[in-house]
Design brief:
246 residues, alpha/beta, Rossmann fold, 7-stranded mixed beta sheet, 11 helices, 46% helix, globular
């Protein structure tokens, strides 16, 4: 399998490649996230949930939920939130489901897992009060379509909070150094811990395939969101992007 999908690949090819990759790395995905970020991804995800405001206590959709970090935390910390964690990797959802069983006392039946595509969300219009994602934007074939789908399933005033590695214009020195670490060190660590160098070569390559952060903010506005903002973490390599459905 190619280490990086060609830019000309049609959406179906990228989706199949990404699904197979996440199925392969699911078993050690959480460990690798902790190693790559020194555990700070958990702080970033906490900020993502806080950015939802009081909308976090309603019906919340976590897109590309992976092993369920955001969905599990939200369901366990809000007594009223009803959370759906959606992903198209069967193995990632299996890991999320195992973790959900272990914490079922904290959330009861308020947490559901669903298999589906971020570009064709299997939910009715205005089904949710908030949507989240962590490290999903790089993995979709049509970012504008994902944003339109998020807007469709949110009711007016609904909140969106999206966390991801993104390119920023004219990055400062410390951000460029962090990007070198991502390109040169992370694939080697991924090969050692996960046994899959290709997946962690895809990581920096996929960041390069995204439009710069200001363009992403404009795309969210065009999709139907207002008050679109961003906050940087990880020495400027990670952005938390938020907005409110008009």
């Amino acid at each position: 399998m190619s280490q990086q999908p060609p830019a000309s690949n049609p959406p179906a090819d990228k989706a199949a490649m990404v699904e197979a990759m996440f199925d392969r790395i699911a078993r050690r995905y959480d460990l690798m996230n902790d190693v790559m970020t020194g555990g700070t991804h958990r702080l970033w995800k906490g900020a993502t949930l806080r950015a939802l405001g009081n909308r976090r206590h309603g019906n919340v959709l976590d897109v590309a939920t992976g092993t369920g970090d955001l969905a599990l935390t939200l369901a366990a910390t809000s007594r009223t939130a009803r959370v759906v964690g959606l992903d198209f990797s069967a193995q990632m959802l299996a890991r999320a489901n195992l973790r959900g069983h272990a914490t079922a006392a904290a959330h009861g039946d308020r947490l559901l897992w669903a298999r589906g595509d971020a570009l064709r969300l299997p939910f009715a219009d205005r089904s949710f009060s908030a949507t989240t994602s962590a490290f999903a934007l790089r993995n979709v074939a049509d970012l504008g379509q994902m944003f339109r789908e998020l807007a469709r399933v949110l009711g007016p005033g609904g909140r969106v909070a999206l966390l991801d590695l993104v390119p920023i214009p004219d990055p400062p020195l410390w951000t460029r150094l962090a990007q070198v670490h991502l390109r040169e060190v992370v694939p080697r660590v991924g090969a050692a811990i996960v046994g899959d160098a290709a997946a962690y070569l895809y990581l920096p390559a996929s960041v390069g395939s995204l439009p710069p952060l200001p363009t992403i903010l404009d795309m969210l506005t065009e999709a139907g969101f207002a008050d679109v903002r961003s906050r940087l973490f990880g020495l400027g390599t990670v952005a938390l992007i938020t907005g409110t459905r008009r």
